[in-house]
Amino acid sequence: MSDQAFDRNALATRLGTIVGAEHVIRDEPLSEHTTFEVGGPAALFVMPGNADELSTVLEACREAAAPHFVLGCGSDLLVADKGYPGVIVSLTERLTHMEAHDNVLVCEAGVSLKNAAAKACELGLGGLEFACGIPGSVGGACFMNAGAYDGCIADVLQAVDVLLADGSLATIGVDDLALGYRKSRIADEGMVVISAAFGLTPTDRPQIQAKMDDLTRRREEKQPLELPSAGSTFKRPEGYFAGKLISDAGLKGWRSGGAAVSEKHAGFVVNVGGASAADVHAVIEHVQDEVERQFGVRLQPEVRFLG
Ligand SMILES: Cc1cc2nc3c(=O)[nH]c(=O)nc-3n(C[C@H](O)[C@H](O)[C@H](O)COP(=O)(O)OP(=O)(O)OC[C@H]3O[C@@H](n4cnc5c(N)ncnc54)[C@H](O)[C@@H]3O)c2cc1C
Q1: Domain tally for the chain?
Q2: Residues 201, 106: one domain?
Q3: What pLDDT does 2 receive?
Q4: Annotated catalytic, 2?
Q5: Burial of 12 per CB tally in 10 Å (0-12, 13-18, 19+)
């Protein structure tokens, strides 16, 4: 890539000494690491395997003045077609350890919510059922206080181990994280979640499984899970539902290139085949403009833009 502001070869070598050369990739297509299946290559893609490696990788990026971005499951991201001219620090390949003690489930940041919920169920611990169908990672979920149906991360999180923006380690209790609707201090202050401890409640396994099955069924009925997307594209505007506004504006099925407003759930922009990031942007902007023109409400994207 031509617009890199750092010495890619030197940094690739340095990162290889930290995580092993096999865990550093050049020009990795980010369309393979996002649920939208959209996005060009990352100049470097690195997969740390533990907290020390993660911390040293981030330090090396800072020292090299290389832009860097911590990636979870890529389920809330729209990556530009030209890709990301920096270092993607991907946690879901190797930072995936879980352990439980005294009704507390501790998950490394790269654990998927699906696996965390399944593990809690296997252990007879209730509280994470709401998360079973959210296709994100523990780190990404803490970052934005992910939630669904009757639960959210703030309800079950006890504490997170994080790296602060200056690289120092800290354990922060849930009450000090300022978790709100899709927001947190983690996001505001550029912290990186290493692991999260969830305080759960002993519950009969069949009861947990039945709740997860019910939530999965409700999700499958309402959401276009058969097509790539980043979930709800827009935040819920105060006093309205984004999906209803979009549907009432007559925008279901509105399409630009390979991206379209879902016919099944108007709150989702979906990749109907070969969408570019430019296509998705065009749909988002059209929806924003048209909903504002008809109802005077400017929808704000929930999905985050990278590159
Ligand atoms: C079909 C579908 C359904 C969805 N349903 C829901 C839902 O019901 N409720 C809901 O809340 N969301 C939902 N989402 C959105 C998404 O799954 C969540 O927001 C999820 O929490 C994002 O996690 P992620 O690991 O994919 O984050 P990514 O998309 O990888 O990253 C999102 C942000 O989190 C940051 N981040 C990731 N890991 C860390 C870390 N370890 N430390 C610090 N920052 C980090 C990234 O830097 C980025 O800024 C849905 C998405 C899809 C595709």
Answers
A1: 3
A2: yes
A3: 47
A4: no
A5: middle
